[in-house]
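hey so i finally got around to running the thing on that chain from the lab meeting. sorry it took forever, my laptop kept dying and i had to restart like 3 times. anyway pasting the input first so we r on the same page abt which one it is
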Amino acid sequence: MSFTWQLRAGVAAGVLVPVVLWIDGATRAGYSLWHHGASQLGTGDRGWLQTINFALGGTLLALFAAGLRRVLHPGLAARWAPILTATAAAGLLVAGFVPTDPALGYPPGEPEGLTATGGVHQVAGLALFAGLSAAALILARRAAETNRRNARLLKAGGILVIVFAFAAGIAYRLDTLGVWQPAPAGLLEHLSLLAGFGWVAVTAVWLLRRPSAVAAPGGIVSGRSG
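ok and heres what got predicted. didnt touch it at all, straight out
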């Protein structure tokens, strides 16, 4: 059975999620791409749009994880890259259906503070960012066996995901403390997601064109990508 449709799901997820986030954020009244977190687009006006975006993106990412499991030869990457990608997919799905709390003045006029729902959303976000980062780093180790350029790009993607996410958390804290207002917490979080879904899309394209771009020699389920 062909696994190309599962890899194409990775391309779709990698493009869909960040593009919808950036377009919605740029056109949403009262929302600032610089200031407000990506998850806050799941609240307020047009919040339903991001619920759909995260749910569809999570489903596509889960399919991509299944595709990775089929294309990689048994080993560390074959075992853990799909698991970590699926963890990210689960985090995105939960984040879509369990909205975050109002923060940094968005949605306007809504009371702010951490709730149980917001806590669940934060855990889901941690799974998303950690999964995307760790999966890229493990795939980078595998890619180094056949293509150092691909390995460097994957490693950069994995590092950028966690660095931008961590920086976003610091910026958010500085903003709430009044040290830096408005801090670029939103921009940094959007960049983290862009890096994460960027490596997903690029890796899916690599594997569709030439499976050995990431998988080790002899580690392909089929000698053909289709």
